[in-house]
């Protein structure tokens, strides 16, 4: 099984469009974590926060595969949870991998009440473990980079792959291939094209923090084959993107409407990555500004 995983990962690395240093980090973390066992704190109990009740269980479900997502307390915690994207991913995986995959969410938060309110507000009913003293991380010494704090595990809690599937669609495809088998799930290949951005950064200026602001980017297909957007990933849950899923013909443009609703006042610099069949994918867009207090 491990040899098969290594083969899939080698193909995965060849597909990644990124700088050499990023590839080296992938390889280093893979070598460190592949085959390692993730250990859980004794007496760990999971809680589901629904709208009307709180359910607790103290036994981990047994599935052939588990996606473990750990979120530490650094930075904008509520932004980093990305609960809506996780709900979409869970629904997608449940539809193609029934009875094969479990999800474990470990949140290092020292304020359970605030987190519980957030989970209820987002209608996030999956079981979570609120690790107030960061015991899980202290036992396992997870990478500090949030992009590598998510793991695909086998039934014995051995690491099969690493990477956050809601941050990178290629990681999501890799997880699918591992779970379904190399020959079961195949990504449809697309010929590369070239893309011109009307701008790389949009400054939204200063605005009241309770207001939602909107800006627009345009990607023009300057190549000779249709532009296909595979996924659009934002750096936090405060930012959402709307765009057409239809292929963009050569010479035509794709408009991306980006909405930002501040989670807290202050200056911000948020990123949006567009994964597509462009030669320089993912395309990086940024929005900046200052959300003012009353």
From TrEMBL:
Pfam families linked: DUF1573
Name of the molecule in the record: DUF1573 domain-containing protein
UniProt source species: Bacteroides reticulotermitis
